[in-house]
Amino acid sequence: MICATFYESFSYNFNSSNGLGFMFLFFLKRAFDKNKSQKLCLTHETHYIINIMKKFTLISCILLGGCLSGVTAANKKQSIYKDAKAPIEDRINDLIGKMTLEEKILQMNQYTLGSNNNANNDGEEVKNLPSTVGSAIYFSEDAKLRNVAQKKAMEESRLGIPIIFGYDVIHGFRTVYPISLAQACSWNPGLVEEACTVAAQEAKMSGVDWTFSPMIDVARDGRWGRVAEGYGEDPYTNAVFCVASVKGYQGKDMSDSKRIAACLKHFIGYGASEAGRDYVYTEISNQTLWDTYIPPYEAGVKAGAATLMSSFNNISGTPGSANHYTLTEILKKRWAHDGFVVSDWGAIPQLIDQGSASSHKEAAKQAFSAGVEMDMMGHCYDKYMEELVKEGKISMAQIDDAVKRILRIKFRLGLFDNPYIKETTEKERFLLPQSLATAEQLAEETIVLLKNKGNILPLATANKPTIAVMGPMAKNRLDLLGSWFGHGQVENVSCISEALEAEFAGKANLIYSDGCDFDGEDTSKFSEALETAKKTDVILLCMGEKQNWTGENASRSIIELPAIQEQFIAEMKKVGKPIVLVLANGRPLGLSNVEPLCDAIVEMWQPGIPGGKPLAGVLSGRVNPSGKLSITFPRSTGQIPIYYNQRKSARPNSGKYQDIPSTPLYEFGYGLSYTTFNYGDIKLAKETIKRGEKLVVEIPVTNVGKRDGTEVIHWFITASFNTITRPVKELKYFEKQLIKAGDTCVFRFEIDPMRDLSFVNANGECFLENGEYYVKVKDKKIKFTLTD
Ligand code: BGC
User: Fold this and answer.
1) CA-266 nearest atom, ligand 1
2) Which end of the chain has less Cβ packing within 10 Å, N or C?
3) Mean pLDDT score of the chain, rounded to an integer?
4) Distance 596 CA to ligand 1 centre (A)
5) Which of 85, 227, 297, 246 is nearest to 545 (CA)?
């Protein structure tokens, strides 16, 4: 490195316009000429030598001075990229000009680090990490290992380019939040932003610069395991929560020491996996791509998301990771995204499995030419990119553009200026009181009350009832964490039984019986459970799904509860006591078989670290549930796909089944409260608006119950007719307000025709058509007209 610096400054000295090299030659020549014209004698000889030496010394000084000033000047020049005050684009241009092809190519690769979390392993793996690698997936949970690896990059590589460390911070880092599907049921994007801010802070302080989150794949098939990771079935909902999480992770300035870069994934259409099977084909027309899958990504890019991840799925014949239309035409050209795209894990070599590429080299060419700048663990770019460039299949200009995108995000994150992370104790960075409070509030707001016959909930405690607490979730901690729980620790989760003990201390007697397991056929504990149940006033059944039943490659063909759980609920029904079913799960469930057996059903989802505490609050009445479903619960698996915004069909009652109603069991937006809200009529400021105008619509909602409650209003829009057919209704806005008992709140929505009434065609061009429109809230609707 020193040699390279000296060489650069030396050549700069002699080639640069400061002319020091020329000055040196000029002096030397003059001394020589003078000497030639002098008549030499011995005494003169000495003088001559002294003179020559003097001149030589002078010249040497000048030369040295020149060299030094040349070095300084050169250093200044070559170090623009190191100058924290220089504009980022100048720094990028300066750096790219100094990089060799090999250095550029390694920037486009992501390796892994820290998967071996043996405490003595700090630094072991770093030996295998090239000092010029662009990125590493960072599995460790403290900054120590990162700092060792970063030091290698900063000090051992020629140019000292920092590594960007990425990790899947999906629903929290150590403070684990409810799964994203549940988060959306809170309809509280502000709170989700706060949760992502905490997640960013914990991650950054642990050595992570970049999260592979949010996942904003619209998902309408509960069989797909990854439904848990996104914000449900609706494009608008995904867009709103995407923006909230991007803001939470990145803040206003990504270089803040507690912020990280976001990554919108999986670009695009992964949620359409056929029959909910992971990684398989997705049939997506361009119309549906634009209508349904693109809006959350467009919103995320507009919100400044630094990066995107290309998807595994094959989009109607062209894989997501080799898709020029989505990655370049839409993302880079139309949306002018200037960050970078990372492939999903191994998605580039998998182009061979998908039948798109014949070799790893061809896969590298396809993915890179389509617009994937970084190869996650595929080792196609590091092995074949140089050959591709030398063969002229990829140009240096393309390479430069890709590397500049990666460097841009590194500069924006401040990695060049602050490459290391202060090492802190776990206590200093994890599970801080405010982080836990946010987690608890979010978990409370995600709980959806699905059924409450005879207002059995909240549980009456005046007579100190005896409550039977049963089922595989009652004393379970792990499964409350949900899939992808980062560095969450089971011992930090409060289980349901513990939380109930604390909540009902002195108010109720709790007795326990296992009852049944999550699955299998073991009914041996049924009889003991029956005996226990007979002694109680209420039976609380804690059921649901194991945490690894959802997530990546964790699809299920049937979304009903496993037979053993259904059987156990039926067995408990025989006791004749009220049954409260509590569900912790990561997907919408088919509950038709058990719904009639239960008096109340509480969907608590997988709440993360707060565990059973928010649920206990709902059961006792300390918390009035306000969550509403972000995804439809079908009556049975056979109804899938079923979602609220289906396109209009030929006959009003079409889509019937002979065996079950065609409506879902619980629709999108459904959720009960302990109080009752009465909806007034929707009022329009005007019945007709012009295209440039806005229309204010309002609806009064009165809390006619005896306790305060929070209500969420979903505003839907539909047109009578459009030249491209539209869904029966589309969510355009939502709002949540606390309404005190007896009070009326007016919810307001300002319709902006271009934003809320327009639609796109199969190439993303936007249209706004005059005509009749309806605005809908619950079962209320009102017509208005749009004219020129
Ligand atoms: C998943 C991504 C994840 C990546 C890195 C992949 O298998 O599909 O969602 O970000 O692994 O862990």
Assistant:
1) 9
2) C
3) 91
4) 39
5) 227
User: Does residue 129 carry a pLDDT above 80?
Assistant: yes
Could you report how far apart the first and last alpha carbons of the chain are, in Å?
A: 68
Residue pair 335/328 in contact by the 8 Å Cβ criterion? no
Total residue count of the chain as it appears in this document: 788
Written as one string, the DSSP assignment of 128-184 is GS-TT-SEEEE--SSHHHHHHHHHIIIIISSS-PPPEEEE--SS-SSSPPPPHHHHH
Which residue out of 343, 344, 550, 555 has the highest number of ligand 1 atoms within 8 Å of its CB and is therefore the one to mutate? 344
Give the rounded distance of the alpha carbon of 631 from its chain centre.
18
Global confidence as pTM: 0.91
Reference 618, options 592, 580, 651, 652; nearest CA is 580
- Enclosing H/E stretch for 92: helix 88-98
* Cα(167)–Cα(156) distance, integer angstroms: 24
- 465: tokens are 């009832």
Q: At residue 15, does pLDDT exceed 60?
A: no
Tell me the average pLDDT across 82-106.
98
Are 513 and 470 spatial neighbours (Cβ–Cβ below 8 Å)? Answer: yes
d(CA 281, CA 267): 14
Inter-residue contact 699 to 780 (CB < 8 Å): yes
Look at residue 198 and tell me whether its pLDDT is greater than 80: yes
pLDDT at residue 24 tops 90: no
d(CA 159, CA 168): 29
pLDDT at site 654 = 82
E-assigned strand segments in 514-605: 538-544, 579-584, 600-603
List phi, psi (to 5°) of 78: -70, -10
User: Cβ contacts of residue 546 below 8 Å, gap of 6+?
Assistant: 479, 518
Residue 314, beta-bridge partner list = 319
E strand map for 507-569? 509-513, 538-544
Pairing of strands 466-470, 538-544: parallel
Above 90 in pLDDT, residue 658? Answer: yes
Angle formed at CA 756 by CA 751 and CA 758, multiple of 5 degrees = 135
How many degrees, rounded to 5, is the angle at CA 548 between CA 547 and CA 549? 95
User: Confidence band (pLDDT; 50, 70, 90) for 10?
Assistant: very low
Max CA distance (Å), the chain: 130
For 551-595, write each residue's pLDDT tens digit: 999 999 999 999 999 999 999 999 999 999 999 999 999 999 999
Residue whose CA is at the smallest distance from ligand 1 atom 12: 168
The three-state DSSP-derived secondary structure of 605-654 is CCCCCCCCHHHHHHHHCCCCCCCCCCCCECCCHHHCCCCCCCECCCCCCC
With a 6 Å cutoff on the Cβ, whether 212 touches ligand 1 is yes
CB of 217 closer than 6 angstroms to any ligand 1 atom? no
Question: Is 552 touching ligand 1 by the criterion CB < 6 Å?
Answer: yes
Q: How distant, in Å, are the alpha carbons of 201, 283, 574, 782 from that of 474?
A: 32, 41, 21, 46
Give the angle 266-219-631 at the CA atoms, nearest 5°.
140
For the stretch 267-309, pLDDT in tens is 999 999 999 999 999 999 999 999 999 999 999 999 999 999 9
| Each residue's pLDDT tens digit, 155-182 | 999 999 999 999 999 999 999 999 999 9
Residue 206 alpha carbon to ligand 1 centre in Å: 20
Q: Quick one: which of 449, 432, 438, 482 has its CA closest to 190?
A: 438
